[in-house]
Structures are given as structure tokens and as C-alpha cells.
């Protein structure tokens, strides 16, 4: 069986990362969201095991000490981590593991697994990002300003990414990301086993 890809999607808050990821999952066969672990409190409407695996800081520390994370980081005061076993289960079964994480985590995963595909989502401009954050109506003015400050750091971290998609029009951005993932599935490295089998059969 051909192993799946690891697909990382990163973006500053308000750029549309979560919306794009949620739209891709029902469109693409064998694309599976890698659910992260977090110490953040569960928000209204969230489900454990679907949105995140919610653990306390003690359990998170234990997992770090047991080297159970592919990457982990502290974001806005809470810890987030990508489980090695969750990702391995997906890719070993032939699925593509979709990681919705920040650039710090994305670059860490790329360092550990060089064939990882990094996709960055950015807004068309600063004003658009501000309007989207305000439009979510879930953050205070202080939080919005803090997220904007962090956004520029996150965008700078995208310089090392393989692909950048500008989310000016949502449906167009979704299709662009889908095309990237589908193209990666057809790379020579992933289909080499099929070619070898065909050529071997010809020799028989």
C-alpha cells in the first residue's frame, strides 16, 4: 500500500484556515484530519476527539516526556501538539494526514519528515484580515490587536513553505488547495511502486 502524505495547512488567525480545511475533508477521499491535543478549555459546540483531544497540562507534559508528539507549541497561553501515533495511523493506511497547525509546528514537522507538504493561507491584505477578525465577533478589541501582531509573525514564518494560497475568494482558495493536494498524490515518488510493478510484469 502506498503511504499517504502529511499535509500541513497554516495561516494567521482570520485568514480562513479552518474554513478551508473543513471544506476540503468532504470533497477529498482519503483526506483525514489529524486531531491535535490541547490544554485549551473546550469551547461551546466543540467535541473531544473531533475538534481536539483535551488534556490537562500534567498529561500533556507526560506525553512530551514520552516523545509522543511530532510537534508541539504554546500558542496564546495554551499547549497544542500533533500526535505521532495519530499521524502514523492515517498515512500507514494510505490516507493523507491533514494537520491544521501554526508555522512553528509546520516547520518542525517538515524538519522531522522532509516529504511533508507545507501550504500557507494568507489574506489579500491587512485590512481584510482585520475585518475578518472583527466579523467573527468572538474576540475582544485587545485580542484582535494581539492576533494581528501575531499574524505578521505567522506570515513571516510562511516564507519557508512549499505553497502559498491567497484567500481573496473562499471557493477559489479551496479549489487551489485541493489541486495542490491532488497533484502531490501523483508525484513520481508516490507512484514508483506502481511503475515498478508494471515493468516487472512486462518482464515476466
Describe what you observe in this structure:
With 204 residues, the chain is of the alpha/beta class. It has a single domain (6-203), classed as P-loop containing nucleotide triphosphate hydrolases (Rossmann fold), CATH 3.40.50. The protein is 49% helix and 20% strand. The chain has helices at residues 17-27, 57-65, 84-92, 103-112, 126-136, 141-157, 170-185, 188-203; strands spanning 6-10, 31-33, 37-38, 53-54, 69-75, 78-83, 96-100, 117-122, 163-166. The strands form two sheets. The chain has a five-stranded parallel beta sheet with strand order 2-7-1-8-9, with helices on both faces. A four-stranded mixed beta sheet has the order 4-3-6-5. Strand 5 (69-75) and strand 6 (78-83) form a beta hairpin. Helix 1 crosses helix 7 (170-185). The model has no long low-confidence stretch (mean pLDDT 90).
> Beta-sheet strand percentage?
15-25%
Q: What is the CATH T-level topology?
A: Rossmann fold
Give the CATH level 1 class: Alpha Beta
Distance between the termini: 22 Å
What's the number of helices?
A: 8
**Share of residues in helices:** 40-55%
Low-confidence region ranges: none
Structural class: alpha/beta
Q: Strands across the major sheet, in which order?
A: 2-7-1-8-9
Tell me the CATH superfamily: P-loop containing nucleotide triphosphate hydrolases
Shape: globular
Q: Profile the largest sheet.
A: 5 strands, parallel
What sequence of helices (H) and strands (E) makes up the elements?
Answer: EHEEEHEEHEHEHHEHH
Mean pLDDT: 90
Number of domains: 1
Roughly how many Å is the radius of gyration?
18 Å
CATH architecture term: 3-Layer(aba) Sandwich
How many β-strand stretches?
Answer: 9
